[in-house]
Amino acid sequence: MLKSLFLCITTAFHMVKSRIFLPALALLCASAISAAPHDRGKQLFLDGDYPAALEELSDLVRRSPRDGNANYYLGLTLMAIGLPEQAGEPLQTAARRNVVDAFGALAERALTMYDVETASENLDQWETRLRRNRREIPQRHRELSSRLMQMKNMLDRVERIEIIDSIAVPRRDFFEAYRLSEAAGRILPPEAVERITAEHADRIAPAYIPQNRSEILWAQADSTDHMRLWEAGILDDGSLDHPMPMDSTLAEGADSAFPFLMPDGVTLYFANNGGNSLGGYDIFMTRRSDDADGRSYMQPQNIGMPYNSPYDDYMLAIDENSGLGWWATDRNRIPDSLTVYVFVPAQMRVNVEVSDPNLARLARLSDISLTRNEGVDYDAMLRQRLPKASPADTEAGSVFSIDIAGKVYTTLADFSNPDAKSAMAEYLAADAALRRLTSSLDGLRWKYAAGDRSVGHDIIEGEAEQVRLRKRMQTLRNSAVRMETKTR
After folding, report:
1. Long-range interactions of 430-436: CB distance < 8 A, separation 24+
2. Cα distance between residue 79 and residue 102, in whole Å
3. Phi-psi region of 277 (alpha: psi -120 to 50; beta: other; left: phi over 0)
4. Is-contact 86 57, C-beta < 8 A?
5. Of 72, 106, 308, 427, whose CA is between 20 and 30 Å from 264?
6. Which residues pair with 344 in a beta bridge?
7. Which residue in 136, 110, 114 sits closest to 123, CA to CA?
8. Which of 246, 227, 229, 222 is nearest to 294 (CA)?
C-alpha cells in the first residue's frame, strides 16, 4: 500500500504540472490506496485454502460491502465450497461494481443450479462487457457456452428414476457402499491397481472383476498423464494375461476411469471428463464386440440426467440379481466425501415431461422424495433387495487384491493356508479401522482449518494411531504372503 501511495504522490506532481483536474487526481489516489485489501483473500482462494479465504473475504466485505473485487472472490470461494445459493449476492454486487468476470461466475453459478435462462443472460452480458473493454473472449466463456448447450439438451431428456437411498461416504472408499451380489462381480480398491501398475494409488480408481473372474478392468495414466481404461484376462492360476489399453474411442482426449461391465459381457459403463461431459466426470455407456479384427467399442453415449451433473459423477453399477443400481457423485459438495445414490434400474427409459414444474429439481436430485412413489416403504425394499453378506465378506469387512507368486487373491477363500487366511482377516480389520480413522481425521482437520483449535489434540492422537495401524497392517500382510507362499 505504501508503494501505491508513493506512486500516487509522484503521479500527482506530474498531473498538477500538466494542469489535470483535481477530481481525476482524487479518483486515482483513492484507487491506488484501496486496490490491495482483497489481495490476501484472493491468494488464499487461488491456493485452495477455502476456509481461510472465506474468513478473510467475509470480514473484508463486512467492512467494505461495496468492494467489487472482495465480493467477487468471496462469491468464487462460496462456489468452491458448494454454496452457490449464498454466492449469488456477492457476485451480483461485484457485477454491479463493474467486475467484468463476475458475469462469467454468475453464469457458472446458474449452471450449477440448472437455471439455463439466467446462465445464458449472464454469458451474453460477460461477452458484451469483454468486447466493450477490448478484452479477448477467454476459453472459459467457450467452455461455459458449450456446457449451457449440453445442459439444455439434457434437460429435455431427464430420466425418471426411483431413488431408494442416498449415503454420504468417504471419497476414497465410496465403492464399498456398493452392496453387489456375487453375480454382479467385485469392485476392487485402488490398491489393487497400484500393485498391477506400480503407480501411486492416489491417481488410480477402483478396478472391476466380473463374476466369472475371467478378466479385470481398471484405469491408469498414459504417456500424456491422462487416465485411460485398461483390461486384461485372468488365467486359471490367477495371473494376468496380456494387459492392454482399451479402444482410444473411450478416452476422448481426456480422463476415463471407473469401469463396470454388465453380466452380458457387452455393456460397459465408465466415467469420462472430456468435451462431452457436463462438468468434471460424467457417466457414459458403450457396447463392445469381438470380431476377426479384435475387440472394438461403439461410440460412448453420455447417459444424461439425473445421473450426471456439473460436478463429478462416478462408477455406475447395476446389479440385475437384486434389482438395485448405484452411482457416486460430489454434487452435494460434502468435504472429503461423496454421495452414493441407490436406485431402481428401469427396464425401459422413461423421461420426465419437459413441462413438469419439478424438472430441474428432479435433474439435480435436490429432493429425492420427488423420485419416489407414494405408499412404498423404501427402507423395507432396500433391506429385502440387498444381498446377504457371505461368510467371507463378513470376516473381511472389505474387498482386496494381493498378488502372491503371480496369483491374484481377491477373497479370503482364495487362501489355502489357514494361518495366512487368519492374518489377512486381521489385516482387513485393521484396514477398516484405518479408513474410519482417516475419515474422522479429515473432518477434524476441516474443523481446525475453519478455526476450531480445540480439536488439535485429537488430530495429533489420531495421526499417531494412523502410524501404528499402518505398521501393524504391513506386518500382517507380510505374514499372510509369507505363509501362503510356503504352502504353494
Report:
1. 430/469, 430/472, 430/473, 430/476, 431/398, 431/400, 431/473, 432/397, 432/398, 433/469, 434/466, 434/469, 434/470, 434/473, 435/170, 435/172, 435/173
2. 12
3. beta
4. no
5. 308
6. 162
7. 110
8. 246
User: What gap in Å lies between CA 350 and CA 451, rounded to an integer?
Assistant: 48
Q: For 416-453, write each residue's pLDDT tens digit.
A: 888 888 888 888 888 778 877 876 776 677 566 656 77
* Cell numbers given for 428: 482387513
Q: What is the spatial distance between Cα 304 and Cα 416, in angstroms, rounded to a whole number?
A: 46
For the chain, percent helix, then strand, then coil, each to nearest 5?
Answer: 50, 20, 30
Spatial CA neighbour of 196 closest among 207, 210, 185: 207
187, 356 contact by CB (below 8 A): no
Residue 164 vs residues 253, 350, 368, 376, 386: alpha-carbon distances, Å: 35, 17, 8, 10, 11
pTM of the model: 0.74
**Gap between the Cα atoms of 368 and 361, Å rounded:** 9
pLDDT tens-digit readout, 22-69: 444 344 444 444 445 678 889 999 999 998 999 999 999 999 999 999
Helix or strand or coil: residue 207?
Answer: strand
What the block records as the C-alpha cell of 100 is: 467484468
- Class of residue 244 by CB neighbours under 10 A (exposed 0-12, middle 13-18, buried 19+): exposed
Residue 43 CA to residue 422 CA, distance in Å, equals 52
End-to-end CA distance of the chain: 73
3-class state of residue 209 by DSSP: strand
Four-CA torsion 94, 52, 333, 367, nearest 10 degrees: -70
- Grid coordinates given for 485: 507362499
Angle 329-332-338 (CA atoms, 0-180°, nearest 5)? 45
Per the CB < 8 A criterion, the answer to whether 362 and 370 are in contact is yes
- Which among 170, 229, 240 has a CA at the least distance from the CA of 204? 229
Q: What is the DSSP string of 336-370?
A: TEEEEEEEE--SS--BPPTT-TTHHHHHHTS-GGG
CB-based contact 261:241 (threshold 8 Å): no
- Per-residue model confidence as pLDDT tens digits over 453-467: 787 888 888 888 888
∠ CA 14-39-44, nearest 5°, is 165
Largest CA distance in the chain: 96
Which residues, listed in sequence order, are joined to residue 94 by a DSSP beta bridge?
A: none
| Sole residue written with cell 489377512 | 424
